[in-house]
Amino acid sequence: MHVAIAGNIGAGKTTLTQLLAKHYKWEAQLEDVVDNPYLDDFYNQMERWSFNLQVYFLNSRFRQVLQIRESGKDIIQDRTIYEDANIFAPNLHAMGLMTNRDFENYSSLFGLMESLVQSPDLIIYLRSSIPNLVSQIHKRGRDYENSISIEYLSRLNERYEAWIHGYTKGRLLIIDVDDLDFVENEEDLGFIINKIDAEINGLF
């Protein structure tokens, strides 16, 4: 079983990944944020470091997906390889922060990787409004995220919605997280788990 959680910056992916891993006794595969050598540079100088950052994420995620399939374990993954290629890289390109040459190189690399991996059995998309994302980002207080603009988050949200609308690679569960507090409220977490149970039961 390979479940992945998708969603914008601040939607609650990592927290929900950890809570669901504990509940289902799945192994959690978290995004490589702490050890990412490009993040600080990227947020300070996006145009210079956008390609490097996206290739780093793509490499990291590709390795994760290969390991997930080889392990034979039940795994829940924080963010998917599709989000890098369908949301973050095209957004940087559209904003003029990644050159045509770099974007074409990146897209070609992703196409090759995508042909070699299987999609998750289930993607859980955490849908969130911009005010909720901003609130969550401020709450966790990561220094490198202080410079993220509302315009940047809005552009990402638009691309997320477009990607989700056209997603056909496997089962998809959409959860609106604005009115949920799955950290403090056990009922809210239970609501999400019930929805996941229904999806998982449909897989077998």
What do you see in this structure?
With 204 residues, this protein is an alpha/beta fold. The chain has a single domain (2-201), classed as Rossmann fold, CATH 3.40.50.300. It is 57% helix and 12% strand. The chain is built from eight helices and five strands; from the N terminus they run E-H-E-H-H-E-H-H-E-H-H-E-H. The protein has helices at 13-24, 39-44, 46-71, 81-94, 100-114, 130-140, 150-165, 186-201, and strands at residues 2-7, 27-29, 75-78, 122-127, 171-176. Strands 2-3-1-4-5 form a five-stranded parallel sheet, with helices on both faces. The longest helix is centred in the first third of the chain and has 26 residues, at 46-71. It is globular.
Structural class: alpha/beta
Q: Counting H and I runs of at least 4 residues, what is the number of helices?
A: 8
Oligomeric organization of the protein chains: single chain
CATH superfamily label: P-loop containing nucleotide triphosphate hydrolases
- The number of distinct structural domains comes to 1
Helix content: 55-70%
Outline? globular
CATH class, anyone? Alpha Beta
Roughly how many Å apart are the termini?
11 Å
> Nearest-angstrom radius of gyration?
17 Å
Which spans of ≥5 residues are poorly predicted at pLDDT below 50?
none
N-to-C SSE string, H for helix and E for strand: EHEHHEHHEHHEH
Strand order of the largest sheet: 2-3-1-4-5
The name of the CATH topology is: Rossmann fold
Number of strands: 5
Strand content: 5-15%
Mean pLDDT: 90
| CATH architecture type | 3-Layer(aba) Sandwich
**Major β-sheet annotation:** 5 strands, parallel
